[in-house]
Amino acid sequence: MSKSAKAVEPAPEPYGDVVSRLEEMVAKLESGSLSLEESLKAFEEGIRLVRKGEKLLNEAEQRIEQLLVDEEGREAVAPLAVGGRPAASAAPRAAAANKAPVEEDVPF
Fold it and tell me: Whose CA is closest to 87, among 97, 78, 76, 100?
């Protein structure tokens, strides 16, 4: 193989496909029509699918970021919190990091 030829990695299985396969596996197990050995194999495959789905979700979560723009038009990147909204502390921290410190009257 020449240096210019690159190994092509297979594309990851879409999350929806993993969930569909897992649902099929659960239906087979719930039907009660499988032998003990077939049930064990289906259960093992189901566990592999659950782990694959969790991995895909974790990878997606790591990639999701929301772009925030502070009052002065500077961009700051903050992680996306549950529910699709920035974490409550993310926006103030991002804005505070880009602002000049404010002097306050301190009694001492």
Answer: 78
Determine the pLDDT at residue 94.
47
Q: How confident is the model at residue 106 (pLDDT cuts 50, 70, 90)?
A: low
Residue pair 96/90 in contact (Cβ under 8 Å)? The answer is no
In the DSSP assignment, the letter for residue 108 is -
- Nearest alpha carbon to residue 87 among 70, 65, 69: 65
Burial class (CB in 10 A: 0-12, 13-18, 19+), 18: buried
- Write the pLDDT tens digit of every residue in 21-49: 999 999 999 999 999 999 999 999 999 99
Are 77 and 69 spatial neighbours (Cβ–Cβ below 8 Å)?
Answer: no
